[in-house]
Amino acid sequence: MGENRKESRQIKFRVSDSEFEKLEQIANSFQMSVPAFVKAKAQGARMRPPKIDREGAFEIARELRSIGVNVNQIAKRLNQGQNVSMEQLEGLERQLNGIWQQFNSALQK
Question: At the top level of its lineage, which domain of life is listed (predicted)?
Answer without folding.
Answer: Bacteria
